[in-house]
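FAQ: What does the model actually see?

It sees only this:
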Amino acid sequence: MGFLSFWGTKAGPTAGARARRALRTGAVAAGAVALLAVGAPPAGAGSRGCNHRTCIAVDGSGLHVDAVSASTTWGGDFTGHFHVWGGGLDTNSRTGFWGYHQKFTVPVGRDLPNRSVVCAEGWEHVKGGFQSRGRACEEIHL
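And it is asked to produce this:
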């Protein structure tokens, strides 16, 4: 592709323009290779999130999980229990009153399988039954 020059003849890119384009292309390719060699930082353990009145916090780095905690949101107090499961975990908290800033923590201290999903669900005890107060989940992955 060229353009019409001042004199009306078709001209292509100059040698200098071609050299600059080649240098830019080479720099972009080198940057992409460097990013692949270094890799992105691990994600997964070390995350937190909430759903309805229940929150989950996964403490750790990459696939290594130190602990998983369940808690309530602000104004999400309830009487009942938490259930934490996934990635080889399956445990219930004591039954009691759970207020803001109170946590049910499950010590893990090991790597969980890549792509494991760990969940915490709050269960309010109501009139002899159970009512979900939210299910918060986080995926453990590299």
